[in-house]
Design a protein that fits this description.
The protein is an alpha+beta fold and 417 residues long. It has twelve helices and 18 strands. Helix 6 packs antiparallel against helix 9.
Length: 417
């Protein structure tokens, strides 16, 4: 059973979530079934980056212990999401001559072309996370999806190169290795969330996934079935809470409760005289000296301003790739920040696109918990891991990560008594 276990570990600024799946045979062949979903509060993580290895390690350990008690099997390998404003996304081209004398393109030619695309000037403090082929050109025939088996002399590939800050990657891997777990691979957070949320048809037409986390908002844009662009923005739902705390002059824990229980991103549905009594919340949170009556319209205006700012930043990213208001399948919202009332309408208005809350469409599960907006990244990681293990292939560009991971492994083994 242990060999069939696939685990996705989503390390967020607010919580660490683990989804454990098991590959099982059914009528459609081998498929993954989710057998556990665990959530613990995270410490030592800020804006998607590790700021205390000790705290992060203990949070991950707590999550793993909880998982073991729940499913009864130790988890020793995980697929990990990486997220943070340090992530960079660039396009690169690679050109090679076809190797075989009869001009037939093989897998080896494709690999060489992708490797050639990696030969770009990467800043010294950055590492390549993924090299994702977008489209190929054989001689003068463009927009080829899969060139293997075709005939030609010159093979060209256009790739999307996703890079991460070396120090952040090493800190994250170090924190995980300290718990005694192996890392299968690091994968960009919005890329894996899309595995669970966006179907092949929508990816073909053009769609975007927006994951509104606690301190970051990540974006992945798909078109013609491939990833077109990815970005991580340094603003999230914690900023909304902070705005509410400043606007109402109340403690942050009370602001969070007011935001989740009475907050909305649509001030238009409240009249000026609509007020709510928060005496019970004030008593529960022990926040003295705060006004007991608050205006719902005022709270909604505060929230709307920050939510619009988040979507304006997303729109700026879409403008970079000339897709502002041009994605027919629309945007899918995930993450805890998307649970706020009125966020979907704000997305429609600001981005001028169809918008809806993301839901698990692609992974079979009997555990309702994993269909929650917060769990979709961890669920997507498990689904991604299941696909890669089944196909027996590594992630494009995974070699660069493996080298970094091996260095950390060697360093740790040298410290072991």
């Amino acid at each position: 059973m242990k060999d069939n276990i696939i685990a996705g570990l989503d390390i967020g600024s607010n919580a660490i979530r683990l989804v454990v799946g098991q590959r099982a045979l059914n009528d459609d062949g081998e498929q993954m079934q989710v057998i556990g979903a665990i959530e613990v509060a995270s410490e030592g993580i800020s804006k998607g980056a590790v700021n205390s290895i000790e705290d992060t390690t203990s949070s991950i350990s707590a999550c793993m212990e909880k998982a073991e008690r729940l499913i009864g099997v130790p988890v020793d390998k995980v697929w990990v999401s990486i997220n943070g404003p340090h992530i960079k996304c660039e396009k690169s081209r690679g050109v090679v001559a076809v190797g075989k004398s009869d001009g037939e393109i093989t897998e080896d030619d494709v690999e060489r072309a992708v490797e050639a695309a990696q030969a770009m000037s990467v800043p010294p403090n950055y590492e390549i996370l993924h090299v994702i082929p977008i489209k190929f050109t054989v001689d003068n025939q463009e927009d080829i999806r899969d060139p293997i088996g075709m005939t030609g002399v010159r093979l060209e590939v256009e790739t999307l190169v996703i890079q991460g800050l070396s120090s952040q990657i090493k800190n994250l891997t170090k924190a995980i290795y300290r718990t005694g777990i192996d890392i299968e691979d690091l994968v960009l957070s919005p890329l894996v969330a899309a595995e669970a949320v966006i179907g092949p048809k929508q990816k073909e037409l053009g769609a975007a996934l927006i994951n509104i986390g606690a301190s970051t908002t990540s974006l992945a844009v798909f078109e013609e079935g491939e990833l077109l662009h990815a970005a991580v923005l340094p603003v999230g739902s914690e900023h909304i809470t902070a705005d509410v705390a400043i606007g109402l002059r109340c403690p942050i824990n009370l602001a969070e409760r007011i935001k989740t229980e009475y907050g909305s991103a649509d001030p238009g549905k409240f009249a000026k005289k609509d007020e709510v009594n928060i005496k019970d919340l004030i008593e529960e949170e022990g926040a003295d000296g705060v006004a007991e009556e608050v205006s719902l319209k005022y709270i909604a205006e505060i929230i709307e301003a920050r939510v619009e700012e988040i979507f304006e930043k997303v729109d700026e990213e879409l403008k970079k790739i000339e897709r502002s208001g041009m994605l027919p399948a629309g945007v899918f919202l995930t993450g805890g920040g998307a649970k706020l009332t009125g966020v979907v309408d704000a997305a429609k208005k600001t981005l001028r696109l169809p918008a809806c809350l993301g839901s698990n469409k692609n992974v079979g599960t009997v555990i309702d918990k994993v269909n929650d907006l917060n769990f979709l990244t961890a669920l997507g990681l498990a689904a991604w891991g299941s696909q890669k293990s089944e196909a027996g292939i590594r992630i494009p560009g995974g070699a660069a990560i493996e080298k970094s991971v091996e260095k950390v492994k060697k360093w740790f083994s040298s410290l072991m008594p």
